[in-house]
Each structure stands twice: as C-alpha cells, then as structure tokens.
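Hi all, long-time lurker, first post. I run a small reading group and we've been trying to get comfortable going from sequence to structure in the token notation. Rather than ask abstract questions, I figured I'd post a concrete chain and ask someone more experienced to write out its structure so we can walk through it together at our next meeting. Sequence below, copied exactly:
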Amino acid sequence: MENAKANPAASANVFSKIFFCWLNPLFSIGYKRTLEEEDMYDVLPEDRSERLGQELQRHWDLNVEKMAKTTQTPSLSRAIICCYWKPYAVLGFFTLVEESIRVVQPVFLGKIIQYFESYDPSDSAALHRALGYAAGLSFCSISLALTHHLYFYHVQRIGMKVRVAMCHMIYKKALCLSSAAMGKTTTGQIVNLLSNDVNKFDQVTIFLHFLWVAPIQVAAVVGLLWAEIGPSCLVGMVVLMILMPTQTMFGRLFSKFRSQTAVLTDTRIRTMNEVVSGMRIIKMYAWEKPFAALVSDIRRKEISKVLKSSHLRGLNMASFFCASKIILFCTFTVYVLLGNTLSASRVFVTVSLYASVRLTVTLFFPNAIETLFESRVSVRRIQEFLQLDEICQINSVPHKNHEKNLSSVDIKELECYWDKTLDVPTLQNVSLSLNSNQLLAVIGPVGAGKSSLLSSILGELPRHKGVMKVEGQLTYASQQPWVFPGTIRSNILFGKELIPQKYERVLRACALKKDMDLLPEGDLTLIGDKGATLSGGQKARVNLARAVYQDADIYLLDDPLSAVDAEVGRHLFEQCICGLLKKKIRILVTHQLQYLKAVDQIVVLKEGQMVAKGTYTELQHSGVDFTSLLQLEDEDEPVASENAIRIRTLSQNSVCTDDGSRDGDQLPAEAVQTVVEESRAQGTIKVGLYVKYMKAGANVLLVVFMLFINLLAQVTYIMNDWWLAYWAEKQDEVNNQNITITNGTQKLDRDFYLGTYGGLTAATIFLGFFRNILMFHIFVRSAQTLHNHMFNSILKTPVRFFDTNPIGRVLNRFSKDIGLLDNNLPVTFIDFLQLFLMILGVVAVAASVIPWILVPVLVLFLVFLYVRRYFLQTSRNIKRLEATTRSPVFSHLSSSLHGLWTIRAFGATERFQNIFDAHQDLHSASWFLFLTTSRWFAVRLDGLCAVFVTATTFGCLLLRNQLDAGSVGLALSYAVTLMGMFQWGVRQSAEVENMMTSVERVVEYTELESEAPWETKLKPPPDWPSRGLVTFDGVSFSYSPEGPTVLHKLRATFRPREKVGIVGRTGAGKSSLVSALFRLSEPNGKIYIDGILTSELGLHDLRQKMSIIPQDPVLFTGTMRKNLDPFTQHSDEQLWTALEEVQLKAVVEELPGRLDTLLAESGSNFSVGQRQLVCLARAVLRKNRILVIDEATANVDPRTDELIQQTIRDKFKDCTVITIAHRLNTIIDSDRILVLDAGRISAYDEPYTLLQDKQGIFYKMVQQTGKQEAVSLLESAKKAYNNRSRSNTSNGHLENECEKSLIICETAL
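-- Answer (accepted) --
Happy to help. Here is the structure in token form:
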C-alpha cells in the first residue's frame, strides 16, 4: 500500500463531507470494474495503527503506574475512557439534536391536520400558517437524514479507532510474553481476542449515547402527549415499559440457546473435520454409514436448538412489529372509555409521537445496555491478557569494543525451572564454557532437557540459580522449523539486506540450491500459511539458512539434521555447520551419533542433569555407552530412532526436494496436486436459487400459503390505522351536525367502533406472530434439508475431490455457510419481507389519498433502483476486500506466535510489530471505505424519502378542497415513518442477496459427481474371498479422467497366503496400486479376487472384504470401542483379544472408562505408535483374507516396529499380505517382491533372486541404504530364500501342485 491513493476525505470541503461526495470517483470506478486493493484510499493519519496503539498504550501504562502505588488493580476501561472521551462527548450533542427533531416533527404534523379539521376556504392567514408548518415538517425530514448519518459515521469511526488501538496493544504484548505466561494462554485464545472480543468496540460506541438521551426523550414525549390527550398517555407508556424488559428477557433466553447451539455446532464441525480429513480411510474401511449416522445425530440435536432460538427470534420480531398497535389500542381504549371523543389531529399526533420514541426505547436503549455488558466482559478478558508476565530481556551482550573473536558462553551450576510448581528442576548442575569457533554437541534421550538448555541460553527459560554469561550476538534455529507467510527469500533474509554472493553461499551450504531451481519462481515462491507449499525437509533447511545468514557470533542449532535424510544431513553438517560457520561458536543438539567424532566438545544430558562432558575419545574411554543413552526411548514418546531415520531415505516425506542435493540419480520430481481455485459466483443471484431454497423447506402449496398470510398481516396492520381515521372522521361529522341542530344531540355507537378496532388489533397480533413462526419453520427446515443433501453428496463423491479441495474449503461450507443458513439468513429474509410489505403499504395509503402522488413515486423509484444497483456493485467488492484484508492480520499473529522464540532471538520484534501495523492499516482502509460507502448510500436514500415526504405534505395542501382530516393524517404519518425504514429495507435486501451466495455454495456441493454405488444387485458369496487370490489383468489407472495415467497395463498375480512386498522410488505408483485395488477411482482393465470381477460389485461389498493398515494412522473422536468396531459387530471379548494381540491391552485398561473412554480430537491422547497399533487391531478384528499394509513404520521406534511385524506374521499367516514398503528391512523376507518403476512392473520375483541382478532397481535401492545395512539385507534375503526352498520340499507335493497350476494361470494371462 506504499503507493496508495491519498485519502480525499482529508481534503474534502464541508458540503462534500456532509453528503460524502468525495466517494463519487470510487463508485464510478467500482461500477465499471471490480475494485482491487490498489483502488483503496490510504488510511487517514489519525487512524494509523501505530499512532492509535501508542496513544492508548501510554494511557494504559500511566494507569498501571498509578495503580501500582495504591495497590489497586489497573483498569483498562478507565484508560480507554481517558483516551477517547473528548471527541465522543461532542458527538453526544448530535444525538440530542437528532432526537429532539424527532419529537418536534409530530407537533408540526398535528398543526397541519388541525388546519384540515377546521378547514375554511376563505381563511388565507390559516393557509399561510399551514404552509409554514409544512415547510417545518419537510425541513425536519431533511435535517434528520443528514444528522443521523453523520453521527453514525463518526461514532463508528471512534469504535474503529478503539479496536485498532487494542489490537496493536494485544499484538505488542503477545510478542513479549514470558514462557510462564504462554502456558496460561493459547494461540487460539489470543486469536480469539483479536477476532471476536475487540469487535465489541465497534458496536458499543454506536449506542452508548442513547443511555442518557432515551430518558430525556421519553420525558419530552410524555409531556407533549399529556397536552394532547391527558393522562391516558400514561397507559401507553406503561405498556412500552413492559415491552422493554420482555425483549431483554427474550435476549437472555436467546443467548442461552445460542451458547447451547454453539457447543453442538462445535462438535459437528469437529466431527466434520475428522470425516473430511480421514475421508480416504473412511472410504477404504467402508465406514461411511456409521459416520453419516453420527453427523446426522448431532445435526438433529443442533437443529432442534436452532428451531427453538428461531421461534424465539420470530416472537421477538413479531412483538416489535405489533408493539405500536398494542400501545395505541390500550391508549385509545382508555381515552374513549373516559368519555373523551376522538379527533384526527389527536389520533395522528399520538401515533407519530409513539413512533418517534419507540425505536429509541425498544431497540437502541436495550442494545446500549447489552453491548455495554458484552464489551465489559471483553475488556476484562483483554485486561487479564495485558497483565500477564513479560520476558526479561535476553542476556547476550553484543560486542562493543572487544576484538571480534572474543565471543564466549560461560555457564556454571545452572538450575532452571519451566514450572515452579514441580519440585524437579528442568535443568540442574549444568556447567560448560565455550570460546570462539568451538562446536559443542548436546546429546541425550528424548526429554533430557536438550532444547531447554538452548532456551535458557536464549533467555526464554528463566534461570533460578547459577551463573550464565553470554557474550556476543545470538541466533537460533528451532527444532520445529518455522516459516512465516511470504517469499522464501524474505524468510531467509529476515530483514537483513540482500548480499548476492553471501546469499548464494548460504543457499549452497544449506542444500537449497537445487530446490530453488525446481520451484516455479525460485526463491521468490510464496510460502502459504505455516509453509504449506514446502516439504518438511525444505522447511528445516530454510529455517537453518535463516540462522546462517544472520551475522552472529553464537549459533544455537536445535536438531536441524533429523528432518532431512542421511545424505542431505551429511551435506549440511560438512558444508554448513563445519564449513560456513567454522569460525563461530556453535551449539548443536543432535541425535545423529555418526557426527560426534567431528565435534570439539560433547555434553550428555539425562533427565535434566549433565551426565558427562568431554571430547569423543574422552567419553569413549570413560566408558559412557552413547548408543544405550539414545535407545532409552520411553514408550510413551515414540520418537523415530536413528536407524529409522537413516534407512527411510526413500520415504514419502523426502520427496524429490530432500534428495535435491544428491548428485547421483535424481528422483523424478513429484507432481504436486494442484489446488482447484475456489469458484466464486459473480453477479446477481438467479430467481431459480430462491425457488430451490424455498422448495427445500416446504412444498409449493405451503410457500403460496405463507405469502398469502404475509399479505393478510400487512393489510390488517394498515386497516388498524385506517379504522382510527374513519372513526375520527365520523366523530367529526357528528360534532358538526350537533352544532347545526342545536337541540337534539346525536352520539356515535361507541361499542361498535371500539369492538371493530379491538378485533383488528387482535387480528394484527395473531397474524404477526403466526406468519413469523411459520416462516422461521420453513427456513430452518430448508437449512436442514440442504445440509443433509450436501453431507450425503460429500460422502459419495470420489476421493479425488478431497485431494484437490483443501479441507478448509469443504469445512467452510459446513461451518460458515450452514451457520448463515441456520441463524442469519432466516432473520434477514423475514425482516426484508416485512419491510418490503410495509413500504408497499405506505405508498398504497399515500396513493389512495392523493392519486397523483404516484407520479413522483415512480420517478423516485427509478432513481432508487439505479442508485441501488450502482451502490451494490461497489459495496460487494468492498465487503470482499474487507474480508480478504482481515485474514492477513490473523495469520500474521498466529505465525508470529509459532515463531516467537525465533523472532526474539533475532531481535525482530520491532519489525514484526511494524508489519502487523501495516496489515492493520490495510484492513482499516477497507473498513473505513465500508463505513463511508454505506453512509453515502443511506444519505442518498433518506434524501429520496425526504423528497417523498415533502411532495406528500405540499400535495395535501394543494388538494385541500377535496380531502378530509383523517386521510391526510394517515398519509402524512405513514410518509414520515418511511424515513429510516426505507433505507433499512434496501440494506436488508442487499444483505439477503449477499447471504444467498451461501445458499448457492451449499447447493453447488449438493450436486457433486458421485462414485459407483455402495451396493449393487450382484452380491458376492458370504464367505468370499475364501482363498485370497488377487489377479491384475491389464490394469491402467489414473486419479481423474483428464489426469495422467499412473499405472500402465499391469499384469500380476498375488497367490493365496503369499506375502508380497511392493517397492519403487517415490512416484513409481505404489500407493496407486492400492487405490486401484480399492477402486478409489475406477481403474481400466480387470481386477479379479478369487475369480470375481471387482468392478461389478458394490463398493461397500468390495471394501469391507479387504483390510488395510493405512500410512497415517487415523483415529476418530469417540469411544475406543467405536474406533475399533463402528458397526458393533463384535463382542467385548473379541475386542480385548484383538487389543491384547497388538500389545495395547494394558494401555486401554488404564484408561478411566476402558473401552468406553472418549478419545481426544483425532486421538491425540495416544502417541503415533499407539495409533498405528489401533489400526492394526482393526485389521485383526476384520479377519479378512486380504491385508494391505501401506507401510507406516516410519513413526514407530524399532521395538514397536518389530512387534507390528511379528503380529502380522502370526495373525495373518493365512492371508494374502501386500506391503508397500518404504524401509527395505521389513519386506526383505517376503515371498516375492514387486518392483514398480514409473507405473510399470520392472521386476517381480523372490528378493534373493532380484538381488543377483546388479543392474536392477532393487539392487540399487539396497545399495543406497549404506554399506552395513546393505550387507545385512542381503543376509536376511538369503536366509529367507534357503528356509523357503527347504520347507517346500519337506511339505510334499501339495504346495507345488497348487503353485504349478497358478503359474500356468499366470502365463496364460
């Protein structure tokens, strides 16, 4: 936004400021094309985030200081008031003026009607007076239009200022939280403060002034009414006062239901999250039905709550609609029963006075109280956050006048606690000293305190006892690599300027050169949130490169080598740690023992204590057994041990990127699944969509009936007022007759008129309530139906849909869009319908009195249509910009919190604060436009209404000869109500249109393509597959019709009870083979299982008969029992046996509810290894003849791994087992190995036979594991081969016979 346009609001003249004319150029641009960020105006200097934040921070700091002396708690609200009370108080005057105009208006109205009551054509003085009153009435309307919107614009801007200032302070605080304070809060909570709590300030400023204006206004109105109709007015006021608390009570109840609904919605979205992210597994297990049942169950509960709160809302809206009628009915009944007579002026002055005060009392005043309470809660939460502990500054001393090489680290008898409540210190009696250019390795088992040692040097972990002296600039590479959204280059430079030679050197040393060449835009590639576009290994290297690029004296490297494979690791160690950095102090935490010979000093930690210290040879002599130290893998922390990491060179994670540094054979670059751009509907909403929406909730008859009831309700509403006017007119005639006939007095039949009036009022009330309940019912029903359709179509869509659409996008449909359909759309829609009918009513009444008023109305209507279209074009864009400029504020906050230590270690807090302020300013710019454009529109609409009022008023005076007082009163009092209502109705119509896009998005997802049917006519025999013979006959496979073919005409047979390993480089098509077998996408060619063609079966019949152990173990929230057996087909006994076989029985028995314990979200209370075992238990339970293992032993320590292998050999010896291997030692003893290369079979034979071919892919893969490993692999292959040939002969001929026949099959194929 450096080149943003200057904001014209600053230099606009007074006239332009009142009418918001300075926005006209923006509207004309917005009308011609879509607005972009460049079109937004710069923020006004007084709205800048930095300036506002510092100002409020100053007041808050003063407050804290003052309170510290008096030992009271500081108050944030006091600081806010001190900061903003002056400009806000000035605005209070505006409110007062506006509300006084509202009270004066009915008085003018009364005077005009009186002129008609005592109409005398010859009295010209009276006419002049009446013209004066008419001018007064028109003037009131016009000035109301102007003051109201100016007031609103300024209050909302003050609200914006408070919000921006608070955000600045929250972010500033977040950057200097101490570790103890971080424990008390969570990232989620801070983001919540920034997204929800501060928004209360936007609302609270709008209504606050009504707290003191409303009582004054009520008093004035009571005074005027008393003069008009005497004490009867008090009855109406009492009714009004009763309505207020009932509405507040509704509000209370409503928020209770909302919070109950929110809990259910959270559970539903959490379940949806798991379903969508685990969709692959759900499909392979054929578990769609239990999940559909689970979701629809939660949804049913949620909808019943939504219905309750919707009915409440309906009652509330209806009471608002009927309130004025009830008040008037009570007032006039009392008035007439006291023996007074009605007259037109009395009736309509009363009607208008009540109308003027009704909004303030029933809407603004309660709103003011409500928002005040809400914002007090928010202020309290923010204040608690602002009072958390801050970190004491880092204890590194930058060099002042030393020689450059005098950096040093000295630690003596250090003792630290992360958590003072635990009596065991995190680190104790650690002593070490380092001088320049030494490399220190810190080793030890998991949880020994290695990272804690680094954080205490950084100053993140406060020291309790001991001495810590650090001289020199520190820099740090964290264990979990942290990248922030931006380009790769900006991640590495991190605020330093670019020196090309140095930058190249760093890239080379960190093995990033090749990767940069592979990426589409090199190092200017944008990294998404949390580095989504990079692989784990790349993130780790970018993280390291960032530290290396800083010119520091002391480098703290927290395990940078374990996220990359062995080859890259060696490169990093030699070229970077011992190459580029050899002149610096380096402290390296590592698990890789092979590098220890090269380091100057080794510190061995165990349980926070220093066990040994010295060089490699010293430690070897002292008899410390390194390897045993590192093998102390606690069972509850399955961290992949070294061998695991080293062997897994051809894993899924180390895609081409991690092997980018290899000079040998390059792996093929993996095709990245491209993310489909989200479709955003352009332009207006089609009528068909409204029809679809209505039809989802009700049949055609019901919809027609609903529209009819709506019309009827509006007609009774108007009849109510018309009857009053008619009554007054008849009374008037009677009075005149009584004057002419002096002796006989006539009286009206009071009971007849009063009875009819009562009947009309009752009808209005009944219809008002009935139509609202009916409409809410229909709309909520349609939300329910649409959700079910969408969910079912999501369950039936092929897996590819989930690969190309990010989870967030699918979840957004289920959370945000369905949320709108449940809560906001019905209210807005109904509100709009009511207002639309009201406006029609007003125009109809005016036209019935003065038919020619339709001419100006038509003109105004055309102008209005044009303005609305003109406005919506721009406003939609601005709303979209506001949403898109808001997300960087949050993503910047959350990424800063993830990388807090790094930011502080690099001393970049200031810079990040400035970036945050820039993001805030960008959002403020769009928010400012959002405020002003809506005011621009409102001023113009209310201007149109003021013209309408003026035309009606003077029109009545022109036609004074043929009009009676009653109809004039009716027309004028209705015209005046049009003012606020009309623009609100139009705004609601725009809102409805915006919300209908949600319906559109939901409908779009109800029409997804679906996969093959779950059940077909052809049912397989119940015991199928009894043998487990799998035959691939010319199978080709691609993930999507237009996608590349990933398997080419495969022919292979997996014999019954055979154990087959499938190997191949990354992208060779190993996982695709499984996808074809499970028909995740329909393969070409034929796959037979026990002679039955799989493509003719229903998907569930097929998938339930094969077991799979997936690569990433997925557990679902719910009980342990649900996770093992969602269809409840097994007894408890069977479940326990299965758990025992996978060594989980002990773990599950310790859980509080045993099998019925609820698991945390996606099973996070189990370690990865344990989750893997649960998946194994599922396979054990299903007892299928075919087991597919997508090898996942990468995240399991060697012991668990052996255990899994053992269980597979024992439990599944009668099954056909197909293993996709990433680590060769697990499949080297299989019966045969299938080697895939680029989707074709390159070899298929016994492992030992394959190893004889020195040119073969398999041989090369074995050699790549390293010398030692290759030898042992060859050994195991040989052993297995010999065992097999022996057992075959000893078993007699049977097996051979079987095999021969099979081999014949194979060749025949």
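A couple of things your group might point at:
The chain is about 60% helix and 10% strand.
The radius of gyration is 39 Å.
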